[in-house]
Amino acid sequence: MLKTYLYIPDDLNKEVGALALEKKSSKAEVLRDALLKGIEQLKKQRGGSAEILLKIAAIGRKYNIKGPSDASERMDDYLWR
Known about the structure:
Blueprint: H1 10-23, H2 27-62, H3 75-80
């Protein structure tokens, strides 16, 4: 296991300490668990937008919805203006 240093705000340190007491574990264990769960969530979010776009495309196919014929040429105009 790698030893590392992490600076956290005082209020977060108090929450970690309270949770460690509640769970009867060390602060390090609470932080490792929180990091692991946080990383798992970030991984899920990373692929989430692609999944949403695929679902939107499936709805379009199901109901035979057609977008503008120049969508690829004017993508920035449609998205940002």
